[in-house]
Amino acid sequence: MNQIKRVVIVGGTHGNELTGIHLIKKFERTPKLIERSSFESQTLLANPKAHGIGKRYVDTDLNRCFRRQDLSNYSLSSYEAQRAKVIYQTFGTGGRLEANFVVDLHSTTANMGLTIILGSKNSFNLRLAAYLSYVNPSVKVLYSPLRNEDSPYLDSICKLGCTIEVGAVAQGVLNARLFQQTEELVREVLDYLEAYNKGMPLEIGDSLIVYQYIQAIDYPRNESGEIRAMIHPQLQFQDYEALHPGDKMFLTFDGEEITYCSNSTGYPVFINEAAYYEKGIAMSITQPLKIEGANQELEFRI
Amino acid sequence: MNQIKRVVIVGGTHGNELTGIHLIKKFERTPKLIERSSFESQTLLANPKAHGIGKRYVDTDLNRCFRRQDLSNYSLSSYEAQRAKVIYQTFGTGGRLEANFVVDLHSTTANMGLTIILGSKNSFNLRLAAYLSYVNPSVKVLYSPLRNEDSPYLDSICKLGCTIEVGAVAQGVLNARLFQQTEELVREVLDYLEAYNKGMPLEIGDSLIVYQYIQAIDYPRNESGEIRAMIHPQLQFQDYEALHPGDKMFLTFDGEEITYCSNSTGYPVFINEAAYYEKGIAMSITQPLKIEGANQELEFRI
Question: Does B26 sit within 8 Å of A176, measured CB to CB?
Answer without folding.
Answer: no
